[in-house]
Amino acid sequence: MFKVGDFVFNYSRAELIKNNQVVKIEPQINELLKLLVDNAGELVTKDTIKKTLWSDRVITDDAFRAVIKKLRKSLLDSARDSRYVRTIPLKGYILIAEVTAVAGAVNDDKPKLVMRTAARWLVACGLLFGVISWTGYSVLSQPAAVTLTSLTSMDGSEVSPFYNAPQNQLIFSHRANKDDYLQLYAKALDSGRITRLTYDDANYANGQLSANGDKLAYTRSTPGQTNTFIADFSAQQGLSNIFALPDVVAGQRYFQAWSSDGSGLYLSDFKQPTRSQGIWYYELASQKLSSVTSSAGHGSGDYFARESFDSRFLAILRNTGANDNELLIQHLPSGELVHVSKLPGSYQHLIWSADDQVITLSSFYGEFAQYDLTSRQFALLPVDINNINNVFYSCGDRCLFARQHNGNYLDLVSQPNPFLAQTPLSYSGLNHNYLEFSGAEDLPVTGKRSGHIYLINKYHKKSQIAVIRDNVKYVLASLPVDIEFTALQVNQEETHLAGIANGRVFILALQDQQFRYLTTELEKVASVQWTAADRLHFARIEHGQPTLYRYELDADIKVRAQNQVYAKQQLTDNQTLVIDSEANAWLEQANSEPVLLTRLPSVSPNRWQVYQGALYYTGHEENLAYLYRTDMTTANTDKQLIAKNRFRLNFELSSDGTTMLAVRSVLAQSDIIKVEY
Fold first, then answer.
1. How far apart are CA 605 and CA 529, in angstroms?
2. pLDDT tens, position by position, 574-593
3. pTM, 2 dp
4. In this predicted model, what pLDDT tens digit does every residue of 77-112 receive, in sequence order?
5. Which end of the chain, N or C, is less packed with Cβ atoms under 10 Å?
6. Other C-beta atoms lying within 10 Å of the C-beta of residue 396
7. Which of 43, 48, 53, 47 is nearest to 88 (CA)?
8. How far apart are alpha carbons 626 and 621 in whole angstroms?
9. Strands 137-139 and 377-380: what pairing?
10. Whole-number average pLDDT of the chain
11. pLDDT (tens digit per residue) in 208-250
12. Antiparallel, parallel or unpaired: β 462-469 and 472-480
């Protein structure tokens, strides 16, 4: 069910509810409203509506207008003064009313393809659920309703929130526009007074008050440097006595949290493509930096840490590969690891309850779980609302502080290749339009034969493999939302897609939309690339090192190809590009020594591409996104800025090199909220 303006829309029962009055709507009107709800705020073309409601039948304009008129009548709307359905002349219609999912609703209208694909995924992942059931988890009883209360409602986006109970103060970062710098703000919840704390041309994040609220630690980032600062904090006067942590401490580490007694800070290593993160502790009085956890081996390592209020325990989130995550709890006085539990999903944040007996975790896609230290059991929380994440405070029994955004945070865009020696005016004939659809789009690749765009989309708690044809998006397969895709490739004949989902290689046959995995959950892979219509290369991680395999589609066999290699691409009869175990790109040539070209920030095949004798790849310098180009003859590297505040860097150059299909970061409207369930 959905809240649409003043109505509750129950699609499965074809009902509109307002003021406790239930009105049945015709099946065709029901399908039309569902189509508009699924694309709320987006243009739905007349052709899309016709294909959805009438399939291939030919209808008159009068019949089409009659359906639109009936929908407006059901919503007590009008074309002249529309509050629900706006007409875009000659193009289509937009549902302009606010749409939110109703908590606790059960949606029984899944398409057959979605059900079939999800069933195959569940069978394939049986081993995973077997491991989770060994740890044990349950689902808390569903309450009557979930209540959301806004703690902030500023125009724009509030991120990295923190709450200090003794001072009753919220600390958060905010920006009103996508290209603004993130600045620190404080809000006193008793008075509602908001204070801006920073003003300069830098990004500020992760502001956290010490336990007594007199000091604020935060991260300040510029293109040249990222560092952690500590300042005295006053709700009336803001920040004073600001000083930076030594560069040897914070230069390659990111601020995680205060210790509970305020004597030191926890930090984590910066992410690197071939090295796991660890957790560190910096004692302020002695200025001593010590390692808390060492490299985890496989996976990205330890990415989140929070100390219990009584200073006895440290809870750590560890990634061991793809979406395989663990909760570790260390007893700080003895240094012993007292809990190690596999997480029942992909969770990015955690908080302690006031009595230090329960840990609450949240995922980016609105999944919540609790871990009871006494029973050593997980319980999934009944908070089934889209796009609530970043849990940061436990405000009591069945009460949390979190963040909610609108779900539309990534769009595709075709933009000029910045290395072209052209003036801006000469770009006017190029296609550099936004490709805006509902949800968050990523990993775009173009079919060489058709020009269709294949992509991954996150929408309504689903991970979709989709295709854009004639500016209309079609879903090819649908999987659970916590399936994380890290690569997507299409073969030249455009018969199959291949990619990586949760660290596993998959293939999707485009003709019959059959989805299947080529590797198991016990295998870890990091790269995938078509070399022919029926031949695929992928890198499997073995003993911490990549090993390149070749998969023969017709014979359904896997053959080991080369050790300590992520990827290998034949450029000419005499030249081969090789990406080694350290993400170094080498040009191998017959009868000569290999030439080191560059080191890649990522080995993902959607982050690098060879075009006309140059290796193109994307990378970050703080909040700035760059396209790099390394000449494969001279090994010289140049760079061009492609965007500010673009956090997803997957791209593809067009066949003529004039444009690049990329992923645009959108300023998703977000607020800080109180969740009672």
1. 7
2. 999 999 999 999 999 988 99
3. 0.72
4. 888 778 899 888 778 899 988 888 775 443 333 333
5. N
6. 9
7. 43
8. 8
9. parallel
10. 87
11. 999 999 999 999 998 878 999 999 999 888 999 999 999 999 9
12. antiparallel
Record the tokens describing residue 505, joined without a space.
């290689």
Task: Report the amino acid identity of residue 320.
Answer: T
- With a CB cutoff of 8 Å and minimum separation 6, the contacts of 570 are 531, 576
Please tell me the distance from the alpha carbon of residue 65 to that of residue 75, in angstroms, as a whole number.
16
Cα 523 to the chain's mean position, in Å? 23
Token pair in block for residue 548: 């390149």
Q: Give CA–CA dist 412/417, Å, rounded.
A: 15
Structure tokens at 466: 């989709």
Q: Using one digit for the tens of pLDDT, what is the confidence trace for 253-279?
A: 999 999 999 999 999 998 877 788 999
Count of C-beta atoms within a 10 Å radius of residue 624: 16
Which helix (H) or strand (E) covers residue 395, if one does? strand 388-396
Q: Which helix (H) or strand (E) holds 598?
A: strand 595-599
Residue 471: CB partners within 8 Å, gap ≥ 6? 45, 435
Q: What are the φ and ψ backbone dihedral angles of 193, each rounded to 5 degrees?
A: -75, 130
CA 280 from centroid of its chain's CA atoms: 26
Q: What angle do CA 410, 415, 417 make, to 5 degrees?
A: 130
Taking only Cα atoms into account, the Rg of the chain, rounded to an integer number of angstroms, comes to 26
Q: Is the pLDDT of residue 484 over 70?
A: yes
Kindly report the number of other CB atoms within 10 A of residue 552's CB atom.
13
Contacts for 173-179 with beta carbons within 8 Å, 24 or more apart?
173/203, 173/204, 173/205, 173/206, 173/207, 175/667, 177/667, 178/644, 178/645, 178/665, 178/666, 178/667, 179/644, 179/645
**Beta sheet of 92-95, edge-to-edge order:** 43-45, 92-95, 85-88
269, 252 in Cβ contact below 8 A?
yes
Cα→Cα distances 32→8, 76, 408, 460, 532, Å = 15, 16, 22, 18, 42
